[in-house]
Amino acid sequence: MDILRFATAGSVDDGKSTLIGRLLFDSKAIFEDQLEAVERTSRDRGTEYTDLSLLTDGLRAEREQGITIDVAYRYFATPKRKFIIADTPGHIQYTRNMVTGASTADLAIILIDARKGVLEQSRRHAFLTTLLRVPHLVLAVNKMDLVDYSEERFEEIREEFTSFASKLNASDLTFIPISALHGDNVVSRSENMPWYQGTSLLHHLENVHIASDRNLVDVRFPVQYVIRPHKTEFHDYRGYAGQVAGGVLKPGDEVMHLPSGMATRIAAIDTFDGPVDEAFPPMAVTLRFEDDIDISRGDMICRPNNQPLATQEIDAMICWMADSVKLRPRAKLTIKHTTRTARALVKDLHYRLDVNTLHRDETAAELSLNEIGRVSLRITQPLFVDDYARNRLTGGFILIDEASNGTVGAGMIL
Amino acid sequence: MLQRDYTTSQLDVLEAEAIHIMREVAAEFERPCLLFSGGKDSIVMLRIAEKAFWPAPIPFPLMHVDTGHNFSEVIDFRDRRVAELGARLVVASVQDSIDAGRVVEETGRRASRNRLQTTTLLDAIEEHEFDAVFGGARRDEEKARAKERVFSFRDDFGQWDPKNQRPELWNLYNAKIRKGEHIRVFPLSNWTELDIWDYIRREGIEIPTIYFAHTRKVFERDGMLLPESDVLERGDDEPLFEAMVRYRTVGDITCTGAVHSTAATVSEIIEEIAVTRITERGATRADDRASEAAMEDRKKEGYF
């Protein structure tokens, strides 16, 4: 059994919470005590049916205001897969949460209300999903029951969205007509839509192929921690621990250390459970090398003929996540990229992107909360980077405000 | 030639993620510690710490916040495990906090030291100048926990502000704090109760005996089975009876209920959980029943 991480985007009005409640309920991830609490609350509020959306409201302020404030993580499993849902709010002011949820997602579900069609917010969600390079996208056209399960309406929405998505170079795109409230095409195929030939949403989630989404080509091993036991038994032991960010490593492989540029071979790949004969993402292992090289946290192990770019100049798309400060040219920030932390100077803001129209405003002087723009940074020391499109782990970084210590920006290297 | 399929099992993915988080903390903080209660989640967390730094010893101490109202089987287990690892254990005692006048003992039938633990925990963090504290909490446990970060920032009062959390992207964690502040770190955030048990089975990890079915004198209160104990006041309307029970969670004896069970092995426990229809906290924790937002309120104050 493997894990599929998916993000859901849409507002309460689109029926997102109802859909998640339905998935949890029908896969039996909801327990009696949780269901009783929801039934009680539904009755108290005079709702006719059990309001499954109540299952996903976490914080008191959210229940009071009927909104979702933050990314919430939910879990369910079927015999085929374990699922982690990053449930992100859909309102415009929560772009930062959607970006956060999408950063680790294998798949994103965008909900569209069949009555309303493709809205500005649907376009924004699709854009953010492709910006964050979520490999698989599902357009769930919800509330089909309210348009009489009309095939024409579904096709209309499919066409409109497809023409928009072609501008985004969206990845694998799947359309599914559903009714989250009544369960049509959520877990099993609906009898109300015989014209629909595809699979149910859950079937798609269970079967979409994700193993090849990881980068298994470019060897990238950011050194995280140096292990030196200081025990008589392991007197001369020196291991370099980290999580594989790309490629497949094997004992005997020739590798290169950055920043030194020195080549060596992998002597062993160690784990607590014994040595292994290969390591690939997302394994966390400890490497030993044949030669004694000075290696520390923040360094990178790669292949001599396949190296990341070592650079102090970075061009990136930035999503700004702070309301207390703005991103402006000349600002100094802390940057955390793989296991390396350095300082960054904002050299230039090239443009601000309107996430609804994709219009580039080249006169923009700053980025505020939830705004996205293209930025050039100068870094105090070389970072070992790949294009974000090639590798999310060596192409993504966060920016930290040096006064508040808050995480204020997320960057994707171009 | 067949293309090798690099699929990774869910337990391997969760374990790798937790190891990465632990190493990140060891690299970025000066004085981390790991909360170890002898409960199943902290036992799994401790095994992952062992794996993350092997063959080196775990590079931080363990801490137990001791209410004094313990199951003796759990304390025996705790001490044996600490000795095996050669680890350093800090015991922060709620009784000491009461004696020092930092907190006042609750009285009456429903008295519990559960809430008092927060003060003891925060005092110990301050005294030992811990800047990162590992906890075994999981997001599937409770609504408020579902929204908490892996690196959860706490101000100098130890408080959690759910509306002002640091965004967490990819596998990048922001470890920046000022003196006096700290980070609660939850490496098992993405695990479910079933994942914990699957892992215990796969790894052959020892757990305290009270997790398995045994005969115990219990009484019923609010639909929960509480054990006969010197520290639990029992009314005349709460008669003792013998039952075959086990514990799904292990906490303070005064607010942790047992469930009827005949599960004698980890595999039988897993079968039982797979068909059970009540959450572990709903079934066994009086502390969460106080109100719909009970956990949220305690977490804001600095609870685990």
Automatic annotation (TrEMBL), chain A:
<keyword id="KW-0547">Nucleotide-binding</keyword>
<feature type="domain" description="Tr-type G">
    <location>
        <begin position="1"/>
        <end position="230"/>
    </location>
</feature>
<protein>
    <recommendedName>
        <fullName>sulfate adenylyltransferase</fullName>
        <ecNumber>2.7.7.4</ecNumber>
    </recommendedName>
</protein>
<keyword id="KW-0548">Nucleotidyltransferase</keyword>
<keyword id="KW-0067">ATP-binding</keyword>
<dbReference type="InterPro" id="IPR005225">
    <property type="entry name" value="Small_GTP-bd"/>
</dbReference>
<dbReference type="InterPro" id="IPR000795">
    <property type="entry name" value="T_Tr_GTP-bd_dom"/>
</dbReference>
<dbReference type="InterPro" id="IPR009000">
    <property type="entry name" value="Transl_B-barrel_sf"/>
</dbReference>
<dbReference type="InterPro" id="IPR041757">
    <property type="entry name" value="CysN_GTP-bd"/>
</dbReference>
<dbReference type="GO" id="GO:0006790">
    <property type="term" value="P:sulfur compound metabolic process"/>
</dbReference>
<keyword id="KW-0342">GTP-binding</keyword>
<dbReference type="InterPro" id="IPR009001">
    <property type="entry name" value="Transl_elong_EF1A/Init_IF2_C"/>
</dbReference>
<dbReference type="InterPro" id="IPR054696">
    <property type="entry name" value="GTP-eEF1A_C"/>
</dbReference>
<dbReference type="InterPro" id="IPR044139">
    <property type="entry name" value="CysN_NoDQ_III"/>
</dbReference>
<dbReference type="GO" id="GO:0003924">
    <property type="term" value="F:GTPase activity"/>
</dbReference>
<dbReference type="InterPro" id="IPR050100">
    <property type="entry name" value="TRAFAC_GTPase_members"/>
</dbReference>
<dbReference type="InterPro" id="IPR027417">
    <property type="entry name" value="P-loop_NTPase"/>
</dbReference>
<dbReference type="InterPro" id="IPR044138">
    <property type="entry name" value="CysN_II"/>
</dbReference>
<dbReference type="Pfam" id="PF22594">
    <property type="entry name" value="GTP-eEF1A_C"/>
</dbReference>
<dbReference type="GO" id="GO:0005524">
    <property type="term" value="F:ATP binding"/>
</dbReference>
<dbReference type="GO" id="GO:0005525">
    <property type="term" value="F:GTP binding"/>
</dbReference>
<dbReference type="InterPro" id="IPR011779">
    <property type="entry name" value="SO4_adenylTrfase_lsu"/>
</dbReference>
UniProtKB/TrEMBL annotation, chain B:
<dbReference type="GO" id="GO:0004781">
    <property type="term" value="F:sulfate adenylyltransferase (ATP) activity"/>
</dbReference>
<dbReference type="GO" id="GO:0000103">
    <property type="term" value="P:sulfate assimilation"/>
</dbReference>
<keyword id="KW-0547">Nucleotide-binding</keyword>
<comment type="subunit">
    <text>Heterodimer composed of CysD, the smaller subunit, and CysNC.</text>
</comment>
<dbReference type="GO" id="GO:0005524">
    <property type="term" value="F:ATP binding"/>
</dbReference>
<dbReference type="InterPro" id="IPR011784">
    <property type="entry name" value="SO4_adenylTrfase_ssu"/>
</dbReference>
<feature type="region of interest" description="Disordered">
    <location>
        <begin position="285"/>
        <end position="304"/>
    </location>
</feature>
<dbReference type="InterPro" id="IPR050128">
    <property type="entry name" value="Sulfate_adenylyltrnsfr_sub2"/>
</dbReference>
<keyword id="KW-0808">Transferase</keyword>
<keyword id="KW-0067">ATP-binding</keyword>
<dbReference type="Pfam" id="PF01507">
    <property type="entry name" value="PAPS_reduct"/>
</dbReference>
<protein>
    <recommendedName>
        <fullName>Sulfate adenylyltransferase subunit 2</fullName>
        <ecNumber>2.7.7.4</ecNumber>
    </recommendedName>
</protein>
<dbReference type="InterPro" id="IPR002500">
    <property type="entry name" value="PAPS_reduct_dom"/>
</dbReference>
<keyword id="KW-0548">Nucleotidyltransferase</keyword>
<comment type="similarity">
    <text>Belongs to the PAPS reductase family. CysD subfamily.</text>
</comment>
<dbReference type="InterPro" id="IPR014729">
    <property type="entry name" value="Rossmann-like_a/b/a_fold"/>
</dbReference>
<feature type="domain" description="Phosphoadenosine phosphosulphate reductase">
    <location>
        <begin position="32"/>
        <end position="257"/>
    </location>
</feature>
